[in-house]
Amino acid sequence: MTGIIQNRDVFMKNIASQYGRTSKKEVKRPQWVYRPQDEVMKSASTDDLLFVLKEHCKRIHTDFYQTSVSNLPTTLRYVINEFGGGRIILPKDDRFMEYGLSESMADHHVDVWDYTKGRENIKLAEKANIGITFSEITLAESATVVLFSDRNKGRTVCMLPKTYISIIPKSSIVPRMTQAAQLIRGKVETGEILPTCINFITGPSNSADIEMDLVVGVHGPVRAAYIIVEDK
Amino acid sequence: MPMKIGTENFKERVDSGIQNDFMRAAVSGAQERLHGRRLAAAEELGNWEEWRSHGEEIRQHVLENLDYYLDQLAENVVKLGGHVFFAETAEDANTYIKEVIQKKNGKKVVKSKSMVTEEINLNAALEEVGCEVLETDLGEYILQIDEHDPPSHIVAPALHKNKEQIRDVFKEKLGYTKTENPDELTAHVREILREKFLHADIGITGCNFAVAETGSISLVTNEGNADLVTSLPKTQITVMGMERVVPTYEELEVLVSLLTRSAVGQRLTSYITVLTGPKQVHEVDGPEEFHLVIVDNGRSKILGTEFQSVLQCIRCAACVNVCPVYRHVGGHAYGSIYSGPIGAVLSPLLGGYEDYKELPYASSLCAACTDACPVKIPLHELLLRHRQVIVEKEGKAPISEKLAMKAFGLGAASPMLYKFGSKIAPSAMSPFTTGTSISKGPGPLKAWTESREFPAPNKERFRDWFKSRDKEGEKS
């Protein structure tokens, strides 16, 4: 269903008349003179990027783990226990099965996002102690994981639980937000419909609003962990 | 609250700022930390000047073609099923938003931090029609429950309050029983607001940048409150200043990088959320209905003028964090939600010279703001231009210019002005004072101190000294 635009004409006329011209109907996006973003970690190898990401995790109060595919279930079980176990919520994502992760969570109550249950999912996410997702793109520079929402991947899986674990396939690591923006823009250019929510998440939620003292854990998770997994 | 805050005049506001010791210590501490972090974040990139130039070229291109990009943005939003309302005035915006909420029979509104909604005084408009409106950014929430205390910094709105004051406000308003420990204070707010998020029917956000090509809006936070505001309520209303648009995701990325580094010295903040339209069929969380309100409210009148570059602003407050005048008078002295150098340029343009003609004089023209700006707005030049316009219009400068001048030189000519000038001088000069002389003075003193040293203003004013000397004389 198409939405409605109101008051556009007067508004546009005001802009054009300030410039003493008629409304612009065609503008070509320029070739920018400067492109400093391409220079950042230009010739870094994946291991270099991994090092940057690992180092930055210290600054964003995020636990860092690195593991192999075969050890991932053990590592995940360990991190879940570190975070106090309890209820877990997952998006509906085949990768949990592919990586053999159900055994890691066998001792805990696990809910999987099921859109047919509607807003019941939100209640389950709110009750959960741990939310776990895979990162679609991972930014080394800022230690940021990128999530794409869809009907199987609720936005609040990473927001409502008390703690958050991100599983990061090593191949998802790029230097910085520049490459993520290009990947996403590539989707736009091929006519793909963008996810309604793309979330760039960098560690747990925090605030320095009281006397500039950092408090970790405000509205979102109070703790976060990244598990880097070597690709299969 | 509207853009204009308080009823005191400029001198009274400056006075109460200067007399507020906690606030001044907090402000200078915050300035140093934020400034230090920003410098570190800029330096580690190695080519910060190129980043600034890129930011500038993007912002300039967008402003020159603003109608094109806004049109493209609007078309893409409605294609996704969202609605767009172009609001010429604050009143237009508030009326539309009230209508949307009333149609939905909405009562419970949660908001994430937004300067433009403060500017148009949206909260009051919604409260008038019986809505409960809750700010969910921690700093904004603290101010809101403390009888709508105005913000004093664009990025850290509750900077002027200490944790004991916050604890006392919580005790009085929220029945809080724990200590002034920020972790405990925050945990209490988390608990209260979590419930509010879950039961809200309307979510209202600002917009850091909108992406024309995709019809997306982006929200930059550390707390994650904007994510809950846009995930849980069934209706989302996003309010943006008309200038906050970029062509594509690629420019979004650059401006977000400039914003987070310049505002808080972070490579990225904890949450950068890019939202494209209402939720899709079968998606559970996210709004069913999405409205984008694009606000002019005096901005278009700045386009095509010598002040156009102020619209390049990305609201990072880097200029605020380096300003020696802001350091001493604090945010409330500006009498506007937009404080510091950017506020001194923008407030007279949006709110008129009548209310804000002193602000361009609340500057030493030291140009630290211009150097700090990530999108290269020539802030100190715009302040100077404001002064020229004011003098041309009024035939004379407002009192504050004389104050500043008298404070530094001709003070003895007018007792009242001298008193004020000498009162401010020791503290205003402290960052530049070494011992008893000033080595690197701001503004009017700059040229002077480049070649010689200027005697530092006495910590004890002559008048005070004379008075106490008299008293001592009486004792003996």
Automatic annotation (TrEMBL), chain B:
Keywords: 4Fe-4S, Electron transport, Iron, Iron-sulfur, Metal-binding, Repeat, Transport. Transmembrane segments: none annotated. Residues 386-470 form the Lactate utilization protein B C-terminal domain. [4Fe-4S] cluster 1 binds at residues 313, 316, 319, 373. Residues 70-295 form the LUD domain. GO terms for molecular function: 4 iron, 4 sulfur cluster binding; metal ion binding. Residues 449-476 have a biased composition (Basic and acidic residues). Residues 435-476 are annotated as: Disordered. Residues 310-377 form the 4Fe-4S ferredoxin-type domain. The keyword Disulfide bond does not apply. [4Fe-4S] cluster 2 binds at residues 323, 366, 369. NCBIfam families: LutB/LldF family L-lactate oxidation iron-sulfur protein. Belongs to the LutB/YkgF family. Is involved in L-lactate degradation and allows cells to grow with lactate as the sole carbon source. Has probably a role as an electron transporter during oxidation of L-lactate. This is Lactate utilization protein B.
